[in-house]
Amino acid sequence: MILYLLRRVLYAIPIALAVGFVCFMLVQIAPGDPINAIVPPDAPADVVEQVKKDYGLDKPLPAQFGLWLYKVVQGDLGRSLATGRPVWSDLSTAIGNTLMLAFCASTLGFLLGCILGGLAGTFRGSVLDRGAVGLAVAGVSVPHYWLGMVMVVIFSVQLNWLPAMGAGPGGSSDWAWDWDHVKHLVLPMVTLSVIPMGIVTRTVRGLVAEIMNQEFITALRGKGMTRGAIFLHVVKNAAPNALAVMGLQLGYLMGGSILVETVFSWPGTGLLLNSAIFQRDLPVLQGTILVLAMFFVALNLIVDLMQTALDPRIKRA
Amino acid sequence: MTLRRAIFAACIASLPLLAAGPAAAQGTIRIGMTAADIPLTHGQPDQGFEGNRFTGIPLYDALTHWDLSAADKPSTVIPGLATEWAVDEADKTRWVFRLRPGVTFHDGSPFNADAVVWNVRKVLDREAPHYDPRQVGLTATRMPALRRAEKVDELTVALFTSEPDSLLPINLTNLFMASPTQWEKLRAAAPNAEAAWNAFAANPAGTGPFRLVRFVPRERVEMVRNENYWGEKAKAERIVLLPIPEANARTAALLSGQVDWIEAPAPDAVPQLRARNMVITQNLQPHVWPWQPCFVQGSPLADVRVRRALNLAIDREGLKQLLGGFMVAPVGTVAPGHPWWGNPGFQIRTDKAEARRLLAEAGYGPNRRLALKVQISASGSGQMQPLPMNEFLQQDLKEVGIDVEFDVVDWNTLFTNWRQGCTAPSARGAHATNVSFAAMDPFFAMVRFWDSRMAPPTSNNWGFFDDPKFDAMIREARNTFDPAARDAALARLHAAGVDEALFIWIAHDVAPRAMAPRIRGFVQPQSWFVDLRLPYVQ
C-alpha cells in the first residue's frame, strides 16, 4: 500500500509538469499579449518594451517557463501581473471560498442524487422512477448559468428573499455560519448542485436496479430478510462505484464553475480564472490551474483509497 | 386637541432636519463596478478609466484636476494640488507649478514639492528606490513628454519635458500623488520595493476626499469621507465599491437592494429598472466609437471622397434606436461647443444621396461596388455592442453600394494589432479597424492618430496617415502655451481632421448608469469620471 501511495504521488509530478507546460503554451498561443495586463493597449512602444524588460517578458519562452518552474519548485507561484499581489495569497482565499461552495453543493447534490436514484432504482418503471429520471436529465441538461440567472430573478429580484451576489454582507473575509452569511450561499449552492444531483441520480439508479436483480438479493429475500436489511446490502454494494462518481464530481466542483461564480460574483477560483483569462494574467492563470490539477489528482487518490477500504476486492497496490 | 398639538410638535421638531438639507446628508453608497477586480489602490489605478474614477480620484489628487461639477458643459482642466502653473519663457521644456499650501496626506504628512518629485520619480526614475514598473505602464503612457521634476522651494516645483509640450497640464491629471512618508514606513517592514507597494495598496495614503479603510482583494473596498480634505468635503460618509463584472448580476444586485448604484446596467433591463423607479443617468462622454481608416496606397479609404461618403451614408439615428437611445450621434471627435471643436466645413450627417454622388465621383457605383474589410471585436471595454452595431452598419452601407466584410477577432488581439498598423500581417488586409477610444486629452483624441511620427510601432496611427500640414498643426498646438491660443490651435486641428474625414465617426458612448432613487446630488459630467463628493443618500 505504501508503495502504491508513493507511486501515485510520483505520477503527480509529470502531471504537474505537463499541466504547467500546456497552460503556459496555451496562454502564449492565445491571441493578445500578457503585457496588456500591465500597460494600457494604447501605450507607446518604448514604454511597452521597458515594462516587458522589467517583468522579464522579453526573455525567450523556454527561459520564462524555466524561471517560473524554478520558483514553483520552491513553493513560490509568483506574483500577479495585474495586481502585483502574490498569486498564492489570492489563490488561497479563492480556494477556500470555492471549497466551501463545492462541499455544500456536492453534499446537497449527492444527498438528493442518492435519494432520488435509490428510489428510482428500487421502484423501477414507476411514476416515481420516471419523475426522478426526468429530474436527473433536466439537472445535467440545464445550463448552470441560465438556472442561476432564473433563480436570481425569482428569489432575489422578485421575491427579495435571497441576495443576488457576493459572499456575505462584508465579503468572504469575515465569513460566519449565520443566516446573514449563509443566505449568500444558497442560490449558488443550489445552482451548482444540480449537475451532480443529476449524474448521481442516474448512477445510483442504475447500480441499485442492477444489484436488485442479482441472485444474492433473491436469496436474501428468500431468507426472509426485511426490506431495510436488504437495502443496507444494496447500499454496501453500490457504494464503491457511486463514490467514484461522486469523487469525480467533487473534483469538477472544486475547480470552481467560472460561469456560476461569475453570475453570483462568488469570489472563488472560477471568478479568479475568469479575470485572469481576460487580463492575460499569466502567473495567476498558471498557478491556479496547477493547484487545481493537483487537487484533482489528490482527490482521485483519496477516492481510490476509500473504494479499496469499502470493497477489499478492489486491489490497488 | 392633544393629537393636533402632537402633530404640531412633530412638525416643529422636524424643521431642523429640513433646514439641514443635503449639507448634513450622509450615508453609505454601495457601487457595483464593471471591473472583475478592485482597481489598484496604490495611486495609479488599472482597469482603464473605471479605475481612475473609483480608486484614483476619490483617494488621491493630482496637480491638475478635471472639472466634474457640471453636466451641461465639457469637462476642462482646473487647479488641483497645484494652484497655478506656467511654462518658463526662456526654456519651453521647463514648467513651474505652485503647490496648494496646507494640504496633508491621509497619514498626516504634509504635501509639498518633495512629495511631487518623489511621485514623478516613482514612474520615471529607474534608479529611485521606490520605482515601480507596474505604475510605469499605467502612468508614463498618459504623460509621454514628462521627463523629471525638481524642487524649487517648499511649495514650488519645476517639471521638465522632452520637448516643448503645452499639453502637459492636461496629462498631469493622470499622475496621482501618494504619500512618501506612508510608503517609507511600509518599506521598512517589507522585503523589497514591490512588497512595499503591495502593502501601500492595502493601506494607502493620498490627499483625496475619501480615505480607504477596508480592502478585501477581489471583493470590496470601503472608503470614508476625509474630514481634513482641503476642498469641498464629500457629502456621503462612506463609499463601498464592489466588482461585479457580469451585467445581469449587477442589475440584479441593484434590483434586490444589495447595491445603490451600478455602472453600465444590462441594456435589456433598462425598462425594468425604470419601472422599479431606478434613476438612469447618461451624458455625452469624451469617447469615440469609430472606424479608423487605412490610408496607405491601394486602400479605398485613402480617397477622402470615400471616407466622406461613408460618414454620410450611416443612419446614426437608426443605430441609436438599436441601442435603446444610449448613444450620441457624433459630428467629430469632440462635440460642438467644445473648446477644440473648431467649426469644420464638412458636416457629418445622414445624406445617402450625397454619399452615392461622392462614391460615383470616386469611381464606385452599381457596376463597381466598393468592397471594404473591417477588423472588429466581439466585445471589449468601451466597445459598446460591437457585433450588432457593426451588423447594422453593414446593412446600412449596402444601400449605397458598399459591401462590408468583417474580420472578427478577440478584443485583446484587436488592441495588439492596433499597435502594428494596417500594413502588418495581423491586419489581414483590413481597410479599417474598429477600436473605440477616450478623447479627453488632445494627445489621445487626435495627436496619436494624425501625427506621422505616431505611426506604428510608436503609437496608434494605425492607418499610417501622413500629411505635413497636420504635423505642422500638431507642432503648433504643442508649442502654444497660452491655454486659449492652444485650444484655438487644437480646434483648427480638429476641424481639419473632420474636413479630411480622418475617421468614420459612428457613435459617442453615454456611460449609462442606474441608481436607487434615494441617491441624490449625483452629477454626470461630460467625462469618463465622476465627482464622488457630490452624491449622498437621502
Portion in strands of chain A:
under 5%
Are there runs of chain A of 5+ residues with pLDDT below 50, and where?
none
Count the beta strands of chain A.
Answer: 0
The residue-averaged pLDDT of chain A reads: 85
What is Rg of chain B? 25 Å
Count of alpha and pi helical runs of chain B:
17
What structural class do the secondary elements of chain A suggest? mainly alpha
Task: Tell me which oligomeric state these chains represent.
Answer: heterodimer
Shape of chain B: globular
Structural class of the secondary structure composition of chain B?
alpha+beta
**Strand-residue proportion of chain B:** 15-25%
Q: Using a beta-carbon cutoff below 8 angstroms, give the protein chain pair with the largest interface and the number of residues from each chain.
A: A-B, 57 and 53 residues
Order of helices and strands of chain A: HHHHHHHHHHHH
Q: How many beta strands in the DSSP annotation of chain B? A: 21
Distance between the termini of chain B: 33 Å
